[in-house]
Description:
Blueprint: E1 11-13, H1 53-57, E2 67-71, H2 77-81, E3 90-91, E4 98-104, E5 107-115, E6 118-122, H3 126-132, H4 139-143, H5 151-159, H6 170-178, H7 185-199, E7 202-205, E8 208-211, H8 216-222, H9 224-232, H10 235-247, H11 261-268, H12 276-286, H13 297-307, H14 322-333, H15 337-351
Parallel strand pairs: 1-7
Antiparallel strand pairs: 2-6, 3-4, 4-5, 5-6, 7-8
Helix pairs in contact: 5-15, 6-12, 8-10, 9-10, 11-12
Amino acid sequence: MFFLEGEDKTEVVASSSIAKEKxxxxxxIKPKDKFPSALSRRRPRASTKEGSAALQERSQADFPExxxxxxxxxxxxxxxIGSGQVFHWDSDPDVPGVAYTGCLGETALRLSQPCPxxxxxxxxxxxEVRHFLRLDASHEDALATFPKHDDVLTETVAACxxxxxxxxxxxECLATFITSSMKQVAHIRAISLHLRRHYGRRHVLDGRECxxxxxxxxxxxxxxxxxxxxxxxxxxxxxxxxxxxLADGAVSLEDLDSLDDAAARxxxxxxxxxxxxxxxxxxxxxxDRLGAFPIDVWIERIxxxxxxxxxxxxxxxxxxxxxxxxAWAESHFGPAAGYAQQFLFHYARVRSNTxxxxxxxxxxxxx
Length: 367
């Protein structure tokens, strides 16, 4: 791991006395925001300021070393974290059941599911964890908005019942999907890990390393040549320009709070590398706008093959333009269309025996 000359090299190390569980509580916690309900029009605050001062204000001694274990119904940590919507969490094979280590902003923590019906996390982080995993909202309310006679979606939801849409930190979500163009999920994870290791802040939980995602200031300081050398290619310019605009205060992601979905989508497109698809990803996964319906190559394939197949024995009609698929999907799947999209996306990926078709991104002209 290296840091640029003069870069803040803040490191946080934890040692847990909970050796039996091999799970330690987090070290750094940001001030708590207000967490809105799932289908509420109020949106989470979109803070992009994550300075190092907060890292120095809290320590292990500030919090009790205790875990909270709750009943989680049919929620699946594996399906949710592994469904291609988030890329900053690493599986932890040393913990019984399913476990992931990662950061929420500058807060390092471990989530685990020791058995299908139970979820475990640091007790002091309960509100934040419930919000992130959408356990503070009614899953059934979202499902109830789906079309009643859609056999394709019904099959998909039944097969992926434990899947939830995460509420990700907004800057991390925007930055990640800017770097996703024409990349498969494994490649996006590799890019995220490289950026976190080289420009984020290191944490250690029970001897296991994890890194927070670099702030806009971190990536602005790094410079485009360094990001390009890290394997981002043409995406390096997009990411660096966006980070610079946010770091110098030219714009703020908090401006999204006052905008409706259409205006928010248009506002996001001011950033380099953000087109219709990336804007919808950010609205869905970073802004809690469940009506946003991203169309990448997976979803386009599903819509064309399962909902608009060519008529057998007749000359194939001209394929519907993507913008028409977009309008149809938003109308057909309803106010939680983005939830339906994630079910379709994940189910197609786990059922497919073929390589990912270009994947989460769909090219620089279709992002």
